Amino acid sequence: MAAGEQMYLAVMASGPGSHVAAWLHPETDARAALSIASHTAMAQLAERGLFHMYFIADTPAARTTKLDLYSRMPIYMNQLEPITLMAALAATTRHIGLGGTVSASFYEPYNLARQFASIDHISGGRVAWNIVTSANDYAAQNFGLDKLPPHGDRYKRAAEFTDIVLKLWDSWEDDAFIRDRAQGLFFDPAKQHVLDHEGPYFKIHGALNIERSPQGRPVIIQAGASEAGMDFAASVAEVIFGAHETIEESRHFYDQLKTRLGKFGRAPEELRLLAGMPVIIADSAQEAEDKYQTLQALIHPVVGRGRLGMDLEADLSNLPLDEPVPEELLPKSANFHKKFYDTIVKMIREEKLTLRQMYLRYERARRTLRGTPVQIADTLQEWREAGACDGFMVMFPMMEDGLTRFVNGVTPELQRRGLLRQTQTEGTMRDALGLKRPPHPKAALSRAAE
Ligand SMILES: Cc1cc2nc3c(=O)[nH]c(=O)nc-3n(C[C@H](O)[C@H](O)[C@H](O)COP(=O)(O)O)c2cc1C
């Protein structure tokens, strides 16, 4: 991509902050994940900073075991459900896109299609669905299963689920609801398209009871890192989240995705890769480093050990903190997050780190960027211009502090460099992301026939 092209920005809503110990820091709001006032303030702030999307991650479960660990690391333990939260934010924001995570492993496609179509209408075309397949047994146990189904099966179900959702969103042609008082006709019956689906996971005969939404279809987000995940992303995603440490890794991932797009008859312009980027901003590089170290020092050993064990899918609870982890403890492969697993295995095999060194270093696949607004802008520019991504999924280890400093310092710096839009884009989130509104398939066919 050409130097100087603009970038797209999403921000991860993360309550007190994305750092595992953020809630312990005296300057964060430990109640933020549950506070609509806080979400509203953050989404409005991101909107002022010309972010394109406020993104909400999720898993449909509270942890019910290992509470000694989770009571110190309350991620996903007490937060607002994403669809509900997006509906509320749709009413209190005007421009910013709203991305919400719903698991295709534990939901019904009809419900999802209807809810997201509704929010697209409520928000004036600003909603996106992050399709995940979920990565924990706690969620599975809330939905009739003892264990999470195997990785490959989850992606098969997600593919069928998504295919249904996309078709349901096309239940009606754009101009189906004519509300013609003279004829006494509310809709044109010829413009309804009934879905008749029977597959391995779902059986559906029906149509949505809501008209085609402002974006045609909500934007589709995915973040698969595995082979199956990347294929799925290439087949359907319009925004993809990456989690890579270096420009080279991210560019390689992006190149692979672009190659795969062809397999599904898609073009590179139909995809936006947003690189996950945790950011700490301060007035000087040293202050930013100090902030980071303050947060790291707040990690309780129970949490450090537990997080590593969770992502490695191994029990590390009885290992000494200050000795290397024995290689024979390593499971052969990952069923949850393959990328996180690989990162830890590398630290154990190649660097022979102790447990404590590992947990003070481990950052779930992405090193936190620390620096002044100008330094942060430099790095974002470098990634963007190297073709490593189209923009960023910015995470703030301390949410309010980070987002405020970004909006006040990094946004104007990026604008000065011509790397970020100067004003809000008119229209929908698709317009802001430069993604086409998908024509109704029927409309596309009849146009082609003309
Ligand atoms: C920025 C980002 C956000 C994510 N958000 C969620 C989430 O909210 N819920 C979830 O279950 N997984 C989430 N994931 C995990 C991905 O959906 C996916 O499972 C992971 O990248 C591993 O890919 P794989 O399943 O293909 O191995 C996220 C990943 C990234 C990079």
Automatic annotation (TrEMBL):
InterPro entries: Diverse_substr_monoxygenases (IPR051260), Luciferase-like_dom (IPR011251), Luciferase-like_sf (IPR036661), NTA_MOA (IPR016215)
Pfam families in the cross-refs: Bac_luciferase
Transmembrane segments: none
Protein keywords: Flavoprotein, FMN, Monooxygenase, Oxidoreductase
Residues covered by region (Disordered): 425-450
Tree of life domain: Bacteria
Keyword Translocase carried by entry: no
KW Repeat (keyword) present: no
NCBIfam families hit by this protein: FMN_nitrolo
Domain Luciferase-like stretches: 27-388
Protein name: LLM class flavin-dependent oxidoreductase
Organism: Plastoroseomonas hellenica
Family of the protein in this entry: Belongs to the NtaA/SnaA/DszA monooxygenase family.
